[in-house]
Design a protein that fits this description.
This protein is of the alpha/beta class and 399 residues long. 26% of the residues lie in helices and 20% in strands. The strands form 3 sheets. Strands 7-6-5-4-3-2-1-8 form an 8-stranded parallel beta sheet. It has a 6-stranded antiparallel beta sheet with strand order 9-10-11-16-13-14, with helices on one face. A two-stranded antiparallel sheet has the order 12-15.
């Protein structure tokens, strides 16, 4: 059944992309297996990132109180473990030994103390750098030419996640720049989830799985329906390259930032979950509304994202802005999203054959937003009326 959605997961050890490090094929294969087996990304990472809401207005108090809120809201217990600091956390220049240093005015205790605080609560800390001479904000140095030094620093601080951006570099191939940090992280000796933020420019789905655990397939997301749907379309192209240990990343969640309506945010979250995208909250968790939390805490949708089979769901039909997205899950189940991108309420139908099930199958249908089973009038498919910019999300279980 999975073959309807994925043309085989890519065997990374046969990838033909050039690795800029001077290693034997056996060492390369061992390294790729390390990326898959080191445990940090067997399922898509979940957590929070500071950029979408705070951008450069970030400090250690915000990070600490966000970590506390992930716990008090129950989000951490659902899997949102990473507390990720994005750009603007460091001083504008390195110290006299060439080391990155936390900005004294906003992170006076330092990153190690912050990591200790987060770890004491059972969470993980993420940090940000850039495969260029400075980061995208131009407010702190990048890591180009300092890969091993910075990787060692991150490991010593207790960092668990590195988002590695693509601004202000030397014009060299991203494969060269991203591989250097990858090997530096490996050498540093601490399992650090490596998230490659190359924006999809050089088709990283084809090569980034050699070096990291996730890679951006698109430009930056915006808090709008047009941005979410266009990015979903872009990410959809690369589904066959994703799998346990390596994930396509259509950028962070905008749920709760205020630019879209409730149904649009539900659709955003549903499609990201189906696509096995990293679920990184981008709003201010500390002041999140009850509606926002009801989306982010939908365990049935989260379970789709974290399904151990690890196959990215895909768009299988689109006509007149009415779409069907689907993908296989473990235990021979199928997840289906009926998405209405039009401006008016409309019926959307899907037959079992379209999603890889026998048309004569007896199927149990679970509605993941209503948290209820659907009474089936037709045994060979399902039809639902879907509001504008809304979706219906189901798990189909052959019985």
């Amino acid at each position: 059944m999975a073959s309807r959605f994925v043309i085989g997961l890519v065997l990374l050890c046969f990838c033909k992309c050039t690795i800029s490090m001077n290693t034997s094929s056996k060492a390369r294969e061992d390294y790729i297996q390390f990326l898959i087996a080191n445990g940090v990304a067997r399922t898509p990472p979940m957590g929070w990132n500071s950029w979408n809401h705070f951008q450069c207005n970030i400090d250690e108090r915000t990070v600490k109180t966000t970590a506390d809120s992930l716990i008090s809201t129950g989000l951490a217990a659902l899997g949102y473990k990473y507390v990720n600091i994005d750009d603007c956390w460091a001083e504008e220049s390195r110290d006299r030994n060439g080391n990155l240093r936390a900005k004294s005015s906003t992170f006076p205790s330092g990153i190690k103390a912050l990591a200790d605080y987060v770890h004491a609560r059972g969470l993980k800390l993420g940090i940000y750098s850039d495969a260029g001479y400075s980061t995208c904000s131009k407010k702190m140095p990048g890591s180009l030419g300092h890969e091993q030094q910075d990787a060692s620093t991150f490991a010593q601080w207790g960092v668990d996640f590195l988002k590695y951006d693509n601004c202000y570099h030397d014009g060299s191939k991203p494969q060269e720049r991203y591989s250097r940090m990858s090997y530096a992280l490996h050498k540093a000796g601490r399992p650090i989830l490596y998230s490659i933020c190359e924006w999809g420019e050089e088709y990283p789905a084809k090569w980034a799985g050699q070096y990291g655990n996730a890679w951006r397939t698109t430009g930056d997301i915006k808090d709008s329906w047009e941005s979410v749907t266009s990015i979903a379309d872009e990410n959809n192209i690369w589904g066959r390259y994703a799998g346990p240990g390596r994930w396509n990343d259509p950028d962070m969640l905008e749920v709760g930032n205020g630019g879209m309506g409730l149904e649009e945010y539900r659709s955003h979250f549903s499609i990201w979950a189906l696509m096995k995208a990293p679920l990184l909250i981008g709003c201010d968790v500390r002041s999140a509304s009850r509606q926002t939390l009801s989306i982010l805490r939908n365990k049935e949708v989260i379970d789709v994202n974290q399904d151990p089979l690890g196959v990215q769901g895909r768009k299988i039909r689109s006509k007149a802005a009415l779409e069907i997205w689907a993908g296989p899950l473990s235990r021979k189940r199928v997840v289906v999203v009926l998405l209405n991108r039009s401006g008016s309420r409309a019926p959307i139908s899907v037959g079992w054959r379209e999603v890889g099930l026998s048309p004569s199958s007896s199927v149990i249908v679970r509605d993941l937003w209503m948290h209820s089973f659907v009474s089936m009038r037709k045994r060979y498919g399902i039809t639902a009326y879907v509001a504008p910019h809304a979706c219906k999300m189901y798990i189909l279980t052959p019985s």
